[in-house]
Fold this sequence. Notes:
Strand content: 15-25%
Mean pLDDT: 96
Oligomer: single chain
Radius of gyration: 22 Å
Number of domains: 3
Low-confidence stretches: none
Number of strands: 22
Shape: globular
Distance between the termini: 49 Å
Amino acid sequence: MYDVAIIGCGITGASIAYRLSRFDLKTVVIEKENDVAMGATRANSAIVHAGYDPEENTLMAKLNVRSVELTKELCKNLSVPYAQIGSLVLAFSEEEAQHIEKLYKRGINNGVEGLRVLSAEETKEKEPFVSDDVVCSLYAPTAAIISPWEYALALAETAVVNGTQIMFSSEVSDIKKTDEMFVIRAGEKEIKAKTVINAAGVQADRIHDMVLPHEFEIIPNKGAYFILDKCEGTRTKHVVFQCPNKDGKGVLVSPTVHGNLIVGPNAVPSERYDTSAKLSDLVFVKRKAIKSVPSVDFRTNIKNFSGVRPNSTESDFIIKSTDGFIDVAGIKSPGLASAAGIAEYVEQLMCNSGIRLSEKTSYIKDRKQIRFKELSHEERKKLVESNPLYGRVICRCETVTEGEIVDAIHRPIVPRTVDGIKRRCGAGLGRCQGGFCGPRVVEILSRELKVDREEIAKDRDVSYILKRRER
């Protein structure tokens, strides 16, 4: 019997698992995929929003602003790439300038620190490559960029170190409520828990309906992106937005924590797991982005992808507790930016419902990860002397060593796929997208996991790379 079962291990489920791992609770996370952060968490804009966009007095506003400092501190403690570079929302007309004023006032009321409305000249001083047509902009210095999948992995790993169990490849098919517990059917497993937290992303409405009367629906909405090579990574210094509209926060142009430039997304209705990046979507994104930053060189594109937002029929986040079942649903943007505050809020809901949370006497809150390319020459020398595997560069684009890959394989949550390695240490993120290092990563995974190379998948369980020739 578990005290808590969390369904879903995206950034929301991982954040809640991390938060609850401080307490003497027997907690399990149930995840349908074979790794952490396989849904919207790994396919988004990677932005920690400042908090001026959500409507006043909403959970979105409260939890987004609350999370800004929490996220910064968590990334520091957990060795997660993070950079507070600030953001600019551009206005290209007097009508949009009025909307900038509206966002400014809303941000002030939401408690966002340091907001300023900049003139066209001030905007161009901060971002020389933005369009000459800009009228003014909203500057938010507390906005940041982050590596979302590394953030979720760090939270989940630390939760596991503190006793949390994660069940992968376990899709929930049924939940029964009795007087004393919930009985969850996930694949061939039967899991019993006193409290269930529904953090299932695009499946959150279906999970809810297994336990409670129908109240909301998830309405999947897809956005496509370009990732441009590092030669474009300094095209902007801040996250550059356009004025938001009914479809979302608009197409952005932004550096990434890995040194690339990200451009996107659009917003179109989609199926729950349709992550295809269609030509029409990319044409739209390119056209919109050039309006903000005309000089973006799309010839340097190295990857396109799409992510699916778990929008819902409710305008706000859906976070509430009903007889031991806690919905954490409709966590659309700014969900990544709000995750730390969401976890804190869920903890409060549990306390309010009478669950006694007793803190552990021994709790590990920190996590360290070696990134060879970030070390000084002397630090590299010492590391290679202690472990020669760190002297073998496997991914030349990102300067990822065999030592880092082996370290990733033997961390608390074991990656079993090539993309699992990419998410943990960056091998395959660069210009060639794994064309050079991919085969070596397969060999290392095979060796360290003691499995045949044919058993190594690219990403999900069925995406096999090699097949033995039948004789």
